[in-house]
Specification:
- There is one protein chain.
- It is built from eleven helices and eight strands.
- By secondary structure, the chain is α/β, with parallel strands linked by helices.
- Strands 1, 2, 3, 4, 5, 6, 7 and 8 form an eight-stranded mixed β-sheet that branches.
């Protein structure tokens, strides 16, 4: 993995393959909704089934949190979902924003966009739209969204600051985001950092928690809050593909932690411009 384009190509290839599988194949191969741990994609998932708007056909089991459950979406809001996959979070968001709102999903995998559009058509949703595009250069106008959500996507992107800058751009002044993602405390073993499967599975693309939070603040967001945090335990039958038994034991005893965190932050509301000096209105 020498450059950003190679990393993006890897992620696109992996998730295109997942999108093209049937739900049954996806479950049996463990590349998404299945329950076995021989693939890393599905070890971090949370249960969406009790959320209003949940649609089983759109749930590929690829997330690491429930950002739409924490996103404070109101009726009539415009919501953007980054890395929208088959549409799972978009449909949950649509249940909150209602028919008067609008939901836009953005994904750079053509197969995922096709799957999401088919799911939206089946549901006859007229206010849910899926756009093919890179979340580092969103196909969305500035100051458009009330809320941005994303589920386990930023760590798949090499340049996370670019994505956060785009989130800031597309949010209306006073808008906010709720994003679930993977962060680290301590250093991953070199073998895991270099493993392509672990990158596409959202682990080795993660950065240090302190750095992640600092990037959000540096971008200009305010009222930054961790809404939920949970530790991710990588099963031994995954680790054995990259580490020896002795190295696994050392990894377990190192104190290094992998966490899913859901972070909320506001884009500041526009300040009123000052009038001419001496006018008394500032």
């Amino acid at each position: 993995m020498e450059n950003e384009n190679e990393l993006k190509a890897l992620v696109r290839e992996k998730y295109a393959a997942i999108a093209e599988q049937s739900k049954e194949e996806n479950a049996s191969s463990c590349c998404g909704a299945g329950g076995c741990s021989t693939e890393v994609y599905n070890i971090m998932t949370d249960d969406y089934t009790n959320l209003k708007g949940y649609n089983a056909d759109a749930d590929l089991g690829l997330g690491c949190g429930l950002p739409t459950a924490f996103a404070k979406i109101k009726e009539g809001d415009v919501v953007i979902d980054l890395g929208s996959g088959a549409g799972n979070d978009c449909f949950v968001a649509r249940a909150a924003t209602g028919p008067l709102g609008k939901v836009i999903g953005i994904d750079f995998t053509e197969q995922m966009i096709a799957k999401a559009r088919l799911n939206a058509e089946k549901l006859n949703f007229q206010n849910v739209e899926f756009r093919l595009g890179d979340i580092e250069q969103m196909p969305v106008s500035a100051n458009m969204a009330d809320v941005v959500v994303s589920n386990c996507v930023l760590n798949l992107v090499p340049n996370k600051f670019n994505v956060l800058s785009e989130v800031y751009r597309v949010l209306k002044p006073g808008g906010h985001f709720s994003i679930s993602d993977i962060v680290l405390e301590g250093q991953l073993p070199t073998q895991l950092k270099q493993a392509a499967e672990m990158y596409a599975g959202c682990v080795s693309g993660a950065i240090q928690k302190a750095v992640y939070m600092e990037l959000i603040e540096t971008t200009g967001f305010k009222n930054i809050t961790i809404q939920k945090s949970k530790e991710i335990i990588i099963p031994d039958d995954i680790l054995i593909n990259y580490l020896s038994p002795a190295e696994i034991e050392a990894f377990r005893n190192s104190g290094m932690g992998i966490y899913s965190i859901t972070v909320y932050a506001d884009k500041p509301a526009e300040e009123k411009a000052c009038c001419a000096p001496g006018s008394g209105c500032c």
